[in-house]
Amino acid sequence: MEKWAVVVAIWTMCAMCAVLFIRGATRDATRSVRAARGNAHAGRARDGKYEAHDA
């Protein structure tokens, strides 16, 4: 029984590391996309061509 506990613990640790790695890797990509969108909206707002709409 303790062998199964060790196997489950190792698989759980691997799964958690994978999830944290993927979340960390996608955070920067999402942040840069949001920043690019924000800059585009700011540029249109300066030109007077952008109207904010509540979603």
TrEMBL record:
Keywords: Membrane, Transmembrane, Transmembrane helix
Protein name stated in the entry: Uncharacterized protein
Region (Disordered), start-end ranges: 36-55
Biased composition (Basic and acidic residues): 44-55
Source organism superkingdom: Bacteria
TM region positions: 6-25
Entry keyword Transmembrane: yes
